[in-house]
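Explain this record to help learners:
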Amino acid sequence: MAIPRILVVDDDPDVREMMTQFLRRNGAAALPASSEAEVRKQLGGGRVDLILLDVMLGDENGLDICRRLRNAHDVPIIMVSALSADHQRMTGYEVGADDYIAKPFNPDLLLARIKAVLSRARRSSSLVHRRKTQTFRFEGWSYDAKRDEVMSPAQVQVTLSRRETALLQTFLANPHIPLTREEIAASLDATGVAAQGGDAVGRAVDVLVGRLRSKIETHPKEPQILKTERGVGYVFAADVHVDDI
């Protein structure tokens, strides 16, 4: 596995140096930056796997920087701030942050959050990459990824919304693999479907799963294909056969 390249963005040189050295001691290639200009220079000069972005950057605002970066890049961003109220965290998620950590923080917690965000990002990229050029068949159903068509066992075309289609694609790429709500939301976000942070993720995914069940399950309240995995999230319980188009 490649060593993760993490960009540490903070205008305080002591904090920047401390975090950079800490990450290097824990197996990451940490790169320092103190401004948006330096961030963009790093992004243009090579691979960056994750950005740790302080909210308060002297004359610059980390939230504004996050919003602008998200319009042009899909690199994961973790906001770091002494502002920890719920509405401040939600603002971070709204501008596109993948996570939000309040200062002061436990270094081990920081590492755990970095690992989780990197894992979701790698999995989301894999999900999107694998599902564009095949026909998927399951329980008599078929999904033509090239034509974006879903056919029932009775050979009736079933219309799915864009979100429902993206959700189906995610499950078809991962049969029999329990997926958390956060992983599902990250995958949908990678296809252009907005995901919010916190409890809103779980509620939005639950609603979307219910809608998909109503279209592909014979008995949606007793699902046999798209099952709930207690304590985890959901699992696509049917075998999936893939034909190259």
